[in-house]
Amino acid sequence: MPSDNTSASSLFTAGERVTVPANSLSFLEGVAMIVGTNIGAGVLSIAYASRKAGFMPLLFWLVLVGVLTTITMLYVAESTLRTRTHLQLSGLAKRYVGNVGAWLMFMSVCINSVGALTAYMTGSGKLLQSLLGISPTLGSLLFFVPAAGVLYLGLKAIGRGEKFISIGMVVMLSALVAATLLKDSAQMSYLLDGDWHFMVPVFNVVVFCFSAQYIVPEMARGFAYKPEQLPKAIIVGMVVTFALLALVPMSVIALNGTDNISDVATISWGQALGQWAFFSANIFALCAMLTSYWGLGGSFLTNIFDKFRLGNDEQPLRRFGVLLLVVIPPFMLAYSGLVSFVNALYFAGVFSGVILSIMPILILRGARQHGDQIPRWQCGWITHPLLQISIVLVYLASAVYAVASLLGYLPSGW
Question: How far apart are CA 70 and CA 361, in angstroms?
Fold first, then answer.
């Protein structure tokens, strides 16, 4: 068995790619990948998306969706631990569900990733315009270079980048929240404002905020030699994610109320606290977009390799070609005028939420019947059929609402 520091190697078994990771992830790097992927454009948009519903309905969805997402992530974790080969979500779906499941999962990865990366291009341009006074297009280009560069370098570079930037984000966020609580103009009563009639549309943006399901198989590669740490890293990462997702909109709404929130919320937050906070809040936002870009973009890239059997994803020229397919279309969409920042997240959340409520259940059932090995860790009581049915019904009901609101039969929420 090669050591953690050996170079990556690939081989094919029964038509599936087997990749030995060049370096394993530390526990902190695994947690940071979860936090960094989740804390992206979603954390910047949920205050704006919930401005009609208010903070309390948002908090309700953060708790419920966080729990349900963690459960489905643990389903994927057990499935990866039952599978000797390192497959991405589309590969797991093909093996345990079939071709239709594989294509649905791949479409979910594509739609969620393109929606996210498009939002990051739009949001980063706005943020750098507010920080530096440059055009949004130039701002997006400045964001694009380090974002795509680290993505090209691969899993270990992503893990290290996520770790250091996520630590920095927690420090910045702690300072901003403390300043909010000490600000004379902060009104905690604002957190009780809103209308619960508008709560349902908020659900789909919150679903997008918990988008780290896609990177669980990629994390499994990094934990190949210590698989028992995978579920622990998922749970810790999701708890930290919930805390951050709750604190940002709480602070923004407490300072500004629900009527004065920009679609990229940290702009409003920083303006309310003063010049130092304006820069800190927007640097935090850029870091959040960057870490989430790496997590979702890396998952998208490796899913393309797996789906189309392109071999070892560390081949330089081939990786560069696939990288262009991942990063160029979102940049073009961001400035096409076809999609807004929040809508990109909303409809990505609708589609991916339904797929990710159903497919992990089917994948886990298939892995328990046809997997290669019995892992030391298993999901336990969270696989109860009533719980699984409830998960599916919640996400399906939300998708029906989204379609009805798009057609004008129900309120859109914003």
Answer: 13
Of the candidates 21, 39, 5, the residue with the CA atom closest to the CA atom of residue 295? 39
What pairs with residue 20 in β-bridges?
A: 9
* d(C-alpha 270, C-alpha 114), whole Å: 28
Using alpha carbons, select from 177, 227, 170, 214 the residue that is nearest to residue 32. Answer: 170
Question: Both tokens of residue 200?
Answer: 């349902």
**Tokens encoding 350:** 């609708």
Residue 258: which residues within 8 A CB-CB, separation 6 or more? 50, 51, 52, 54, 55, 190, 193, 194
Distance CA 291, CA 162 (A): 6
Using the predicted structure, report yes or no on whether residue 348 has a pLDDT greater than 80.
no
The pTM (predicted TM-score) of the whole model is 0.80
Per-residue pLDDT tens for 168-178? 888 888 888 88
- Taking the C-alpha atoms of residue 38 and residue 219, their distance in angstroms, rounded to an integer, is 14
The model's pLDDT over 48-101, given as tens digits with 9 standing for 90+, comes to 888 888 999 999 999 999 999 999 999 999 999 999 988 888 889 999 999 999
Taking phi over 0 as left and psi of -120 to 50 as alpha, with beta for the rest, 117 belongs to alpha
Instruction: Sort 179 into a burial class: Cβ within 10 Å, 0-12 / 13-18 / 19+.
Output: buried
Contact in structure between 80 and 230 (CB atoms under 8 Å): yes
Do residues 288 and 169 lie in contact, with contact meaning Cβ atoms separated by under 8 Å? yes
Q: Given this model, what pLDDT does residue 363 score? A: 96
Write out the two tokens for 254: 């407490």
Q: Which residues pair with 16 in a beta bridge?
A: 13
Burial status of residue 109 (CB atoms within 10 A of its CB: 0-12, 13-18, 19 or more): buried
